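To illustrate this point, we now present one chain and its tokenised fold:
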Amino acid sequence: MELVFIRHRQGEHTLDLPKSIHTLYPALTEEGIIQSKSLKEQFPLSESDVIITSPTRRTIQTARIWSEGITCMKIVSPLISPRMFPQKSEWQTLPCDKTLSKEIIKEEFADLYRRGTIKSMVVRRNK
């Protein structure tokens, strides 16, 4: 089995630092969309591949564009969290790294749900 890690392509939150990191739920930029399309040639997918992505707009957009035309499974999981996700409780998550709710994901990426290619992994925390 081969495991490939790919970061999302250019997002809106990287355009005007440090101000832009306060963008809530940033999307891909036009350049990010072009970069995502180039993944098809760099790392071609097949229907047996599985993409696991964090629940952020830019990562799901990257996965959607990269896998366009391929009905491979896509899993959205909070276990694959943004790089800036706080490691200590006194730290705060930056607005650009806040994750989308399941409802927003279903609404914005409904085409993936309708085709049955996106799954949601829910993790219960032990108390």
